[in-house]
Amino acid sequence: MIRLRELSRYRDRAWERSMGGEGDDLGGCFVVPTLTGAKLRCIASNDAGWDHVSVSVSLPRCPTWMEMDHIKRLFFRPDEVVMQLHPAEGDHISMHPYTLHLWRPHGMKIPLPPKDFV
């Protein structure tokens, strides 16, 4: 994950304060405009052994693949692989029905399928 201070132009300080703190390089709240006029609301963190970005849209829908790809390119370096997960039903916690997440573990490489399959 890039240093979150590089995304200061997208930080929403009022949102960060409403969540009980000030954002820093370990985490924060961001609002990223899209070409369609939608706003992507992101909460990012890179502690506890994981990089994580949750993404929701200002409209009542899930982010599109293109919107998630845009966020991946903003928050992560080009050489980093990130993933979206579908956990087992017993481990699934949904705080918001239209939020998607990007994850990257620290200290290990995410396995990828053969390039012919992608």
Give the gist of this structure.
The chain is α+β, with helices and mostly antiparallel strands and 118 residues long. It contains two helices and four strands, in the order αβββαβ.
Overview of the structural elements:
It is a single chain. The chain is of the alpha+beta class. It has a single domain (4-86, 96-108), classed as Streptococcus thermophilus LMG 18311 protein like. Helices cover 14% and strands 24% of the residues. It has two helices and four strands. It has helices at 13-18, 65-75; strands at 27-33, 39-45, 50-57, 100-105. Strands 1-2-3-4 form a four-stranded antiparallel beta sheet. The longest helix has 11 residues, at 65-75. The model has no long low-confidence stretch (mean pLDDT 92).
Q: What is the residue-mean pLDDT, rounded to a whole number?
A: 92
Looking at the overall shape, the CATH architecture is 3-Layer(aba) Sandwich
Q: What is the CATH T-level topology?
A: Streptococcus thermophilus LMG 18311 protein like
From the N-terminal CA to the C-terminal CA, the straight-line distance is: 23 Å
Roughly how much helix do the residues carry, as a percent range?
A: 10-25%
**Number of β-strand runs:** 4
Order of helices and strands: HEEEHE
Strand content: 15-25%
Total of domains: 1
* Strand order within the widest beta sheet: 1-2-3-4
Structural class determined from secondary elements: alpha+beta
Instruction: Evaluate the radius of gyration.
Output: 15 Å
Low-confidence segments, given as residue ranges, are none
Name of the level-1 CATH class? Alpha Beta
* Major β-sheet profile: 4 strands, antiparallel
Shape: globular
By DSSP (H or I, 4+ residues per run), the number of helices equals 2
